[in-house]
Design a protein that fits this description.
Distance between the termini: 20 Å
CATH topology: Rossmann fold
Radius of gyration: 16 Å
Strand content: 15-25%
CATH architecture: 3-Layer(aba) Sandwich
Number of helices: 7
Oligomer: single chain
Strand order of the largest sheet: 1-2-4-3-5-6-7-8
Shape: globular
Order of helices and strands: EEEHEHHHEHEEHEH
Largest sheet: 8 strands, mixed
Amino acid sequence: MGTTLQITTDDGTAEAYLTGSGPGVLFFMDAIGLRPRLEEMADRIAGWGYTVLVPNLFYRLGTAAELLPPLDLTIPENRKSYGSVLMPRVQGYTPEQSDADTLRWLDTLAEHAAPGPVGVTGYCMGAKLAIRAAALRPEDVRAACGFHGAALVDGTDHSAHLLLPRCRAEFAFGHADADPANDAEAIAELGRALDAAGLTALNETYPDAPHGFTMSDTASYQEEGAERMFRTLQSLLDRTLGDGR
């Protein structure tokens, strides 16, 4: 359904998958990267009547094809071992890099989507980037979602949850159950921060859902959690962006 764009940034050229038409939705990838599963997810969202942009956030390290996993991640042992490859990439994608990139992604999305407010959705590392996007452009981002998010509350001065007072979006979070990257106390602290900021939000934990539960190309996939994610996301986008169609 979609096409590949080449987006010029201050640090090079980033490819991005663009699909659909209508109000804009910026899709932040998980740590595994831009690949067919994310294009499939973006096409499904586009089918609801939205323009969806999925950038390769790790373009400084290589193209999407160059960064594809060399292993079958539906095999649990491979999925577990591949984490040692992914973590340096995630940790190297600093707020300074991601904030500059996010502004470029939002500007590019605006060139292709219908005029008006936009939504953002993120997975794994992308969940905190969705918060940062809502804080960077509070006048534009009306809906923000994060699913099986990692390090949303990280104990540093750069923690994404500290940016919530700058946001105006309605939020929805679907957390993995017993997730070592996002434990129960972090989820509770995120909820307190959402309440303190006066934001309308869902902050839910999905039963028995492992980290990465939306990704059908990995051993972490849980169909029940993935379908719940799609229902939650569609409801929020339709509620907040529907008047822009």
